[in-house]
Amino acid sequence: MTDNARIRFLVLFSISPEKMAEVGDLVAGQLSRRFGGATVLHSSDSATLTGFWADDGQAFKSAYEGEIHKEPVISLMLSVLPEDEEEAYSQIKATLAQAAKRFALDCRHVHVETLRASARHFDLQAEL
């Protein structure tokens, strides 16, 4: 394959900080086995990812009246070949459902964005 086109998924969901490492390891590990790699970003008291959500944030409004919640967030980035987009989305959903059951996660809504991207790689050691 010579094309560097990719579909990048950005997955965000709230999770208690004490479960982030094990959930991230499970989800990223399983997705990496199929798609070659995934990146997990997570928040805890010493990290940087914090989500802010309005109670009515799922509605498409010009202004939101719901209470604003501040929550620790875990994020997953996964880049796949365009032909693997639907399979990747299905795998993300299935793997998160498995993690929710296994670790008794209390999150409900998962935010998933897909972006068209191009990927480039180089060997840093070869550049030295």
Task: State the low-pLDDT regions, or none.
Answer: none
Largest sheet: 5 strands, antiparallel
Number of helices: 3
Instruction: Measure the end-to-end span.
Output: 27 Å
Order of helices and strands: EHEEEHEH
Radius of gyration: 17 Å
Helix content: 25-40%
Coarse structural class: alpha+beta
Shape: globular
Mean pLDDT, to the nearest integer, reads: 91
Strand content: 25-35%
Number of strands: 5
Layout of strands and helices, then pairs:
Layout: E1 5-14, H1 20-35, E2 39-42, E3 50-54, E4 68-80, H2 85-102, E5 111-118, H3 124-127
Antiparallel strand pairs: 1-4, 1-5, 2-4, 3-4
Structure, described:
- This protein has 128 residues and is of the alpha+beta class.
- It is 30% helix and 31% strand.
- It contains three helices and five strands.
- The chain has helices at residues 20-35, 85-102, 124-127; strands at 5-14, 39-42, 50-54, 68-80, 111-118.
- Strands 1, 2, 3, 4 and 5 form a five-stranded antiparallel sheet that branches.
- Helix 1 (20-35) packs antiparallel against helix 2 (85-102).
- The longest helix is centred in the C-terminal third of the chain and has 18 residues, at 85-102.
- The chain is globular and about 50 Å long.
- The mean pLDDT is 91.
Give the tags:
3 helices, alpha+beta, 5 strands, 128 residues, 30% helix
Could you give a quick summary of the protein structure above?
The protein is an alpha+beta fold. The chain contains three helices and five strands.
